[in-house]
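Internal tracking record. Fields below are filled automatically when a chain is submitted to the structure queue. Please do not edit lines marked as system-generated. If the sequence contains nonstandard residues, flag them in the REMARKS field before resubmitting.
Queue: standard
Priority: normal
Entity type: single polypeptide chain
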Amino acid sequence: MRKTIITAAAAILLLGALPVRADEGMWLPCLISQRIEDMQAKGFKLDAEDIYSINKASLKDAVVLFGSGCTGEVVSPDGLIFTNHHCGYSFIQRHSSVEHDYLKDGFWAMDRSEELPNPGLSVSFLERMEDVTDIVLKGGDVRANCRALEKEAAKDGAGLRARVEPLYHANRYYLFVYREYRDIRLVGAPPSSIGKFGGDTDNWMWPRHTGDFAIFRIYADKDGNPAEYSADNVPYTPKNYLKINRKGVQPGDFTMVFGFPGRTNEYAHSAEVGYTQDISDPMKIDIRTQRLAIQKKYMAQEQKIRIQYSAKSATIANGWKKWQGEVGGLRRNGILERKKAFETGFEKWAKGTAYEGLTDRIAAAYDALVPARFTRELYQETAAAFELGNFAGNVFNALKKDGTVNGDGFFKNWYEPVDRECFIVEMTEFGKRIPEGRAPAYYTAQMKKYGSAEAWADALFKKTLFTSNEKVNALTAKDTARVKKDPVYVFASEFSTWAAEITPEYAKRNAALAPLMKEYMKAQMEYQPEKDFYPDANLTLRVAYGKVQGYRPSDAIDYYPVSTLKGIIEKDNPEIFDYNIPQLLRDIYAEGGHDGQPVCFLATNHTTGGNSGSPVLDAGGNLVGINFDRVWEGTMSDLAFDPSFCRNISLDVRYLLFVIENIGKATRLIDEMTFVE
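SYSTEM-GENERATED OUTPUT FOLLOWS
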């Protein structure tokens, strides 16, 4: 294996001379040696090689990309992994039924024979990363060069996959090589009254008292190689696993988050901030508010419906509330005005250079992009969110592929009145918001024919075959012509075709913007040579570090950075689903001595989506928590990090162990972990 060699010029491009503002940054592990002195000055006790190494086991070898958008960590020599409850939620839900409601009651495998397989779930370890910019740009065919590098890197070894990712708006390119394991089994999960305690009400908020964790295990073949599920597979023996610090953390302690942050846009132009703040987020918030109200109304009526829509509702609500905090944070902190002021200063500096007028050219490119971009986003929040339409498209594709279809999975998690009422909202809002002249002819014709979304829904649901599981399961390849005429399939097909027609315009406008942003990124580095520039997040492994610290969200309110079990009892309310804790937890608390049991804590680490489930490590690299959220006031950190408000929220590992032992009675899991004092 090759070690990454960074030229002096590349090092200057990648990292400036002086630190950014307090605890801001998502740093590449392979370059962490350039941050290690600052980390050590803030309390870290290990070296750069302990974090990332390709020559020996390091902390990176205990961190996994969980599924396609979360992080997890290995915590035992037998491949046990922790992640968030909300990251494993859909898999817990798939195993749940009215008879075995693992969402409500929790799940604990009392021995390995009871650990449940999860088709479609995988975890990936980063094997190595390296700067391949010169190779990618050689000859000018970037795409072909990237594919060639990926193919070469993944050719030798079971489960290997590789991706070349652009960083700094394609000023640099890095190769990331992963090893993927596909036999991942559910081992334990607390009841949702612990794992989702506080529900949507507390989501993104502080103080937080959510036991947001789930436990899985990696299985491999007898030689330790990645393999599809088999009863003959054995627990995976990792290169490294995290030790656990039972002493936990105190205010002021060093913390490090090691995970896979999803997407940030820290170096964005003011036009991006304005679009997010004033156009995109408000539209998405409004439509999702209405959809969530419909789902919650029916979920409150019946346990079966609650199970059917728990995962769906949680997914919708997560973005919905995040965007509210993002808009509030952007406006409160005047980010749009600050971006414009920065651009004014930049243009003064750029006068007489090749960069002169660059910010105006970017603004014009955004103006050209917005109509197509907004139309695509509106489609995703409306027509593309219609459950039955998506199902009809999937059925048609299955019939064309192999002539058979099974609707059992869809109907297990679908309730017609919910989808019908959501359809009415989706089509009504689509008509209100679609830019003039951009609505598909199909939509215009249907609304003219029926006069309202309500009447359209009545006709659609009355005439379609897709509301019947029996009719769907009876379909064969010879029924494709019939399916093509079904009104729900026609809806999905017409809107899908229309959305595809927008793609070339969107791609063209985006392609025009991309080189301008690449130039702007390079220019910002030249304009601010004293600043450290970390690459925007793109679901690749990063290091963020800071300390345990509270914050002041508004005048006269100071938040202490640690919550306790006492706060759970104070919120406990059997009449409110999100706050109705297990009776066992009430009984344990009533015994006394648990007032100070830590539950969650705040820190100043820079995180985003994808960091869910990330290990939070202490100064010695030991596990003290699991990251699961940010505070509402700081969710604008995807566009601008403010050290006064931006805090990540983590589950204290001591509460995780408390729940395993006292609620799950699964001490066998604790027995396979390693602890440090």
